[in-house]
Specification:
single chain, 325 residues, alpha/beta, 8-stranded mixed β-sheet, 11 helices, 34% helix
């Protein structure tokens, strides 16, 4: 499907018709390499001692990823990106580089969030050869803050070394794209000053495929109590735009549902279109249309529908965001 046509159909179904049965496949695809992590960050559900009790831990296999790619190919979406994220650190899975390689053979651009601790220089070299990707990695200029909030001692210098090598690699190989996110704002500091301090740890002459941002935190379906909700309700776009898949093939409504509270089908067992327009997905959308997010397990404590105004809810911003992906 042509990308612009896909976005137009999506916008019509989501904004105008508010349809529950959709005349297009998912635009964005997220698949989870593993739900195991070697960090226990305060802002992430992995820090909750009860988190692993919600669903069994495990890893995506090469065979099941190949099956997922086949099923994705059958629906031929306009988007050529694939996200390796949901819960866990992707490089815990020893096949992560193989996944990027297989995605590249499909003509797909890989995106993933990682804590960066396992992307050694040797692994970065292999990753650059596997195919194009963007790695989103959280960091901070404050070592004590890093060790406290991420519950990980003696990893700061190692991660700094990994990031410096990845930046060097990005200057040599266009396959390597980096987003380095400052997490110090979680402590309530001035985000602009904090970002300047973070940038000062690295060479001033950065390649164009490396960018620094300030991490925007959300509550992970209720894990954090960040601020009081606003009264105005806004229709969440995720069930109209993306499909997120656990390592077992279960489909959840978005990448915020790390505990798989709302399982809407399984794409290892059924085809994507059957799940996407199945009764569970349609009822999930209807509950949001009816302004009853509390009827959806994944939505009842989520801050997104009440996250306030700003440009992110404007049609132009949503359109440009989808076009970039």
């Amino acid at each position: 499907m042509n990308k612009l046509i896909h976005i137009f159909k999506l916008a019509w179904a989501y904004k105008i018709r508010k349809a529950t049965k959709l005349p297009y496949p998912p635009y964005q695809y997220t698949i989870e390499p593993t739900n195991v992590c070697n960090f226990k960050c305060d802002f992430c559900p992995q820090s909750d001692p009860e988190h692993q009790k919600h669903r069994p831990t495990g890893q995506l296999t090469v065979e099941n990823f190949g099956l997922f790619l086949k099923k994705r190919r059958e629906v031929n979406p306009g988007n050529k990106n694939i996200n390796f994220t949901l819960d866990g650190e992707p490089f815990i899975n020893k096949n992560m580089i193989k996944f990027v390689e297989l995605a590249a053979k499909e003509g797909l651009f890989s995106r993933f969030a990682s804590n960066g601790s396992l992307i050694s220089p040797e692994k970065a070299d292999l990753l650059a050869k596997a195919g194009p990707f963007v790695a989103s990695i959280d960091f901070t200029s404050e070592k004590n803050f890093f060790e406290t909030i991420r519950s990980k001692k003696d990893n700061y210098e190692k991660l700094l070394e990994n990031l410096r090598y990845l930046i060097k690699k990005a200057g040599e190989n266009k396959n390597v794209n980096l987003e380095i996110n400052d997490i110090t704002s979680f402590a309530g500091v001035d985000p602009e000053e904090s970002l300047k301090k973070l940038k000062s740890l690295f060479d001033k002459n950065l390649p164009p495929n490396v960018r620094f941002t300030t991490r925007q935190f959300h509550n992970f379906c209720g894990h954090l109590d960040l601020k009081e909700k606003e009264k105005r309700y806004r229709l969440c776009p995720y069930p109209w735009t993306q499909m997120a898949v656990t390592h077992t093939g279960d489909c959840v409504p978005c990448c915020r549902d790390t505990s798989a509270r709302s399982i809407l089908g399984n794409v290892f067992e059924d085809d994507i279109k059957t799940v996407w327009n199945g009764p569970k997905y349609r009822q999930f959308r209807q509950n949001l249309i009816d302004k009853k997010p509390e009827l959806n397990s994944a939505c009842k404590d989520c801050d997104l529908p009440y996250s306030g105004g700003g440009s992110k809810w404007k049609p132009g911003y949503i359109y440009r965001s989808l076009l970039r992906r």
